[in-house]
Amino acid sequence: MPSSSMSQLGDQSESANSEDPFIPSTLKFVVSNLKNIVPTQLVFDNYPLWKSQIVKIFKANGFDKFLDPTIPPPSPTIHQPDGSSVFNSARSRWILTDQNLAAAICSTISPSVLPYVINLETTAAIWSVLETRFQSTNRSKVIQLKNELHNVSLKNQNMTQYLSEIKSLVDQIAVAGSSVDNEDVILYILKGLPTSYQSFKTSIRTMLNPISLDNLYSLLLSEEIHIMSDTANFCRE
Q: Region Disordered: which residues (predicted)?
């Protein structure tokens, strides 16, 4: 056989070996990049944020079924019409994909959380254990944060500090997987104001049209200046 033909055959063989049919490009992408796409590792207080990122990436690449423990892998064999059974290559592809995804997920879990899932064998098992462990923790966290939000008050803070404290609590509630309606945030803000803001609170509560948080913030900062000015004038008299 001519050397050129042998060279072509060698090139074809090398090309075939380099294209592994069991590992699609989407899987290679997720396995290679998941740790960079989800830069913040899972710790005990960021599960909802971490979960949201993982779910989006898995769905975008068609791997979300591997997170569902109710979806079993393909059967090891396929039954033929003549009663015989043949090996089901789809099962091997599933297992290979699942193991790669499990390893990728573990690369985004912090050392403090990893011991809870390190001995689990499937992506779905890892996902289920984390879901069970963190759901109750986050419910408790949300209750605690909402209680703090309910009791927050202006006290000795200035208005900017007060509004920043409320925003921080609302943001933490969102990170914990819950939310607070804007109207409720407004009620919490007004509730925490002292009696010197009574007329302001009444005017906001009796407005015909809803007020946005941004507008409320601006009005509160202006009202603070007016109250401080009135107090200073009163002290001079």
A: 1-20
The tokens 């004038």 sit on which residue? 233
pLDDT per position as a tens digit, 39-60 = 999 998 889 889 999 999 999 9
Residue % of the chain over a pLDDT of 70: 87
- 176 contacts 149 by C-beta, under 8 angstroms: no
DSSP string of the chain, one letter each residue: --HHHHHHHHHHHHHHHHS-TTS-HHHHHHHHHHHHHS-S-B-TT-HHHHHHHHHHHHHHTT-GGGG-TTSPPPPSEEE-TTS-EEE-HHHHHHHHHHHHHHHHHHTTB-TTTGGGTTT--SHHHHHHHHHHHHHHHHHHHHHHHHHHHHH---TTS-HHHHHHHHHHHHHHHHHTT----HHHHHHHHHHTS-GGGHHHHHHHHT-SS---HHHHHHHHHHHHHHHHHHHHHHHH-
Q: In this predicted model, what pLDDT tens digit does every residue of 140-187 receive, in sequence order? A: 889 999 999 999 999 889 999 999 999 999 998 988 878 999 999 999
42 DSSP β-pair partners: 109
Is 118 within 8 Å of 107 (Cβ atoms)?
no
